[in-house]
Design goal:
The strands form two sheets. A four-stranded parallel beta sheet has the order 3-7-6-5, sandwiched between helices. Strands 2-1-4 form a three-stranded antiparallel beta sheet, with no helix packed on it. Helix 3 packs antiparallel against helix 4. It is an alpha/beta fold. It is globular, with a radius of gyration of 17 Å.
Length: 195
């Protein structure tokens, strides 16, 4: 008895990004299945726009996008709308949106990322790296069907880079959820993860 083909979390056919900076004849065709998918490209190549499209924040200029993921998490650490919200309150506000939220993972990752001392500070008081770490705690804790990360290694210290790499290697082996990482290059620690 063979394995049944897995239904992709996302299917895109002839997809054209809004304001696409790159001429792609025929648009983009891709499927996103379980595990970790990586989108690579230089500055201004549409990586962030693609993640926003996958999250449902914007509509495609053309083509078809079918998303079957019930819950989507898009890490946006620099959103100024949340500047005055304490880190702990920002995470608490996310919990109701994600029915499979892992509170144990949240507590462990706040500690592992060195955020415990910053938990009650408004996000605007955090460094870019610490703010990004708060977003990563949310990404790992939400257990969303589709998790989208935009340049998550930027501004992180070495211990946090190592921790994020561990999380992504773990995500690569998932069979029930999908993670999409958009960045300029494949991080060194992921080269052996079969991507």
């Amino acid at each position: 008895m063979g394995l049944l083909p897995m239904t992709p979390f996302v299917e895109a056919r002839q997809l054209v990004l809004p304001g696409d900076p790159v001429a792609r004849p025929g648009g983009l065709d891709f499927d996103i299945g379980p595990g970790l998918s990586v989108v690579l490209g230089g500055e201004g190549r549409g990586k962030s726009a693609l993640l926003r499209l996958l999250a449902g924040d914007v509509l495609p200029a053309a083509g078809r996008l079918q998303r079957r993921a019930a819950t989507v998490y898009l890490q946006v650490p620099s959103d100024a709308a949340h500047d005055r919200v304490p880190a702990s309150a920002w995470l608490a506000a996310l919990r109701p949106r994600f029915p499979h939220w892992d509170r144990g993972a949240e507590v462990a990752l706040v500690e592992a990322f060195g955020l415990a001392e910053h938990n009650d500070k408004p996000l605007f008081m955090l460094s870019t790296g610490s703010r990004r770490k708060v977003g990563l705690v949310g990404a790992a804790s939400a257990r969303a069907a589709l998790t989208l990360l935009d340049a998550p290694f930027a501004a992180l210290d070495q211990p946090s880079i190592a921790l994020l790499t561990e999380l992504l290697v773990e995500a690569a082996g998932l069979r029930d959820r999908a993670w999409v990482l958009a960045d300029y290059a494949l991080p060194a620690g992921l080269a052996g993860a079969g991507l």
